[in-house]
Amino acid sequence: MPDSKPPAPFASPGLAHGAAMRRGGPPGPALLRQSFADAVRTLPQVEAISFGTSAEAKGPGGAAIRDAGDLARFFNPFQGEADPRGRPVGGTGTTTINAEVQNYRGDFGAGNHVFEPDGLRLQAKVEAGRFDSYLRGDLTRAQSGFTSNAPGGAVPTRLSDIGLKPGDLDRIQVGDVTTNGPVGLAAVAAMDRAAGTITFDALSGGARANYGGNFHLTFTRFAFAPLEAPAATEEGKTQEVRLARPLPTSVVPGCLVRGVKRGPQPVNDPRSMAQAVVATISDDRRAVRFDRPLHFGAVLAAAEGDGLLFQPGLWSGQIWSKRSYGPQRDGLSAQAIRIEVSFPAMPDDRGMPAYKRADVEARLKAGAGILWGYWPALWLFTWRPGPNGLGQRIQPNGRNGWAEVDILEIFTRLGTGPSVWTGNLHDQPFERQTVPSPLGGTWRSQPADKRFLTPDAASLLMPKPITDGKRHSFGVLWTRDSVVHYMDDRPICLSQWPLNVTYPHQLGINLACGSLASGNPAALFFPQSQGDAEGQFLTVHSVKSWEA
User: Would the CA dihedral through 75, 76, 79, 83 be positive or negative?
Assistant: First the structure.
C-alpha cells in the first residue's frame, strides 16, 4: 500500500516533551500518566487494518484482511527485496538476524499463516525431524571439567566429570550437538565406551579445556558433520556435499541446514543467508543433496574443520508491511502504532537464571506448559525503498545507519519468561525513564535513581503472564527524539532517543522459535520438545497507526 501524502508537522504532547528535554528542562512525566488514547487524541489516524475471515474495514484508513490475497496487498512475507526470481536480496529475507532456529517461507504458506474468524494466526509447524533435548549433564567446579576441543583436537571428557553414566552412551550418537556452559555449541566427535569418555568439538563459543562452572550440558537432536572437502564448495552454487562422517539418524529429508564457519577459537557463527532443506541422504549417510544451492555466508576451509549444522525442519510465519513508518520521514514529526495480538496461554514464569542440571530440570518441570524457545516479536526495522517498492537493511553508515524499535518481544528461556515484557531500542543511544505504572511490574537491573534506567534496560517483570490466551495491545508513540511504549493502552516507559537516521522503517510481526546466537543455546532458547515447537503461535487481530 503506497504511503499517502503526509500532513503538516503536528505539535503533539510527545513533541512538547521532547522539546523540554532538549532544553535541559524537567523530564516531564506527563506522557507516562496518559493512556495511549489520550496521547494520540490529536494525531490523525491513517491506518486501521483488521485481520480474520470475518474482519470488517472500519474508520480512517480502514481495511479488512480476510485471506492471503488481501494479506499480499498490504504485507510481504519477508523483510527486504527480492530478485526477479523471487529470491530474497538484502534485508532479513526468509531468516532474520539472530540465528533463529526456524525458517520462513518466501510466500504466505497456509500452514504458517492461518486465517481465523477474528485474526491471522502465525503458526510454527514441524515438517521433519524431532525436537528432543534428551539428556542433560552438569559442568560443575567440583569435577575435572568439560573440554570442547578446537577443530582437530582430541582431548576427551570423562562421563563422571559431566554427571553422566556409562549407560548414557547408548543414547548418544556421534554428531549430536550439545549446548554447553554460558555460551556455545559443541558436537560429539567420538566416544570410548571402555574409557568412559566423550570427545567434543567446539562449534561456537570458543574451545575450552577443563571447563567447569555450574552449568548444564544439554544433548539435542541437532547434528553437525564436517565437510569432506570444504574447499570444493562454492557460495550459492553447491547443492550436494560429501561429509567426513555419517550423519546421525535424527537427520532426515526436510531438516534445515546451516553452514558453520569455525577456527582455532570458534565463535558462535552458524551461518547461512537462507536455510536450505535436506532433499536426499545417501545410504551411507555421508552424501546429502539439498533443495537449493547453499549460502554459507563465509568461505569454508578444510583446515578449520568447517561443516554443516542440521536442525529439525521447523517453519513459521511472519508479515512485513508494505507501508513505511517513522517520524523521521520528510514532513512528519510523530508516529504512533497500536497492534492487538494474542498468545497461547502459559503458566507464570519469573525467568530467574538457573543453569545446573538439577535447577534446569526443576524449571522445566515447574514450567510445564511453557513453550521453551517461544519468541514473538512486533518491531520496526530500518529499510531503504528499492526499485520494486520493498527495501533492504541499512548497514551502519553515519547518519543513515540502522535503528530498530522493538514494540514487544517475549522470550521463554532460562533468564526470562512469559511474564516479562521486553522492548529494546537498538543501535542509537537512549535514556529510559519510568514512573510507577498502573500495569505494575518490576524493572530488571534498576539503578539507584529509579526514575531512569540504563540504556540497555528493557525488561519489565509483570505481575501475571503476558501469554494468557487473551487479547493484548502493544504500541509506541514515537517522535523525533523520544519513544513511549504502551501495553494495553497504558504507558510502560519513555525513552529519550534522538534518532540519527533518515530512512523509513518497516513494521514486522513474526514468530521466531529461539536462537542459536550468543548465549541463547545454553539458556535453552529453542524448543526442548516436539510439543514446545508445535504449540507456538501468535495471532494478529488489528494494526492501527497515527502520524503527523
Answer: negative
Give the helix/strand (H/E) hosting 361.
helix 357-366
Q: Are strands 146-149 and 208-211 parallel, antiparallel or unpaired?
A: antiparallel
With beta carbons less than 8 A apart as the criterion, state whether 544 and 337 touch: yes
- The set of residues, in sequence order, having a beta carbon less than 8 Å from that of 370 and lying 6+ positions away, is 346, 347, 349, 412, 417, 418
Please give the Cα distance from 372 to 413 (Å, whole number).
6
Beta partners for 81? 89
pLDDT of residue 441: 74
Assigned C-alpha cell, 449: 535513581
What does the pLDDT read at residue 97?
A: 77
The number of helix segments (H) and strand segments (E) in the chain equals 5, 40
pTM score of the predicted model = 0.90
Please count the other Cβ atoms lying within 10 Å of the Cβ belonging to residue 473.
18
Q: How far apart are CA 131 and CA 215, in angstroms?
A: 21
Burial 373-408 (b: 16+ CB within 10 A, else e): bbbbbbbbbbbbeeeeebbbbbeeeeeeebbbbbbb
Q: How many CA atoms lie within 13 A of 123 on its CB side?
A: 17
Is residue 541 a contact partner of residue 340, using CB atoms and an 8 Å limit? Answer: yes
Buried b / exposed e along 198-219 (16+ C-beta atoms within 10 A): bbbbbbbbbbbeebbeebbbbb
Helix (H, G, I), strand (E, B) or coil at 355: coil
Is residue 112 within 8 A of residue 317, CB to CB? The reply is: yes
Which stretches of the chain drop beneath a pLDDT of 50? 1-28, 385-399, 447-453, 455-456
pLDDT value at residue 21: 33
Q: What span, in angstroms and rounded, lies between the C-alpha atoms of 152 and 201?
A: 8
Cell numbers describing residue 285: 549417510
Task: Please name the residue ranges forming H helices in 191-301.
Answer: none
In this prediction, residue 3 carries a pLDDT of 37
Residue 442 and residue 460 in contact, taking contact as beta carbons nearer than 8 Å: yes
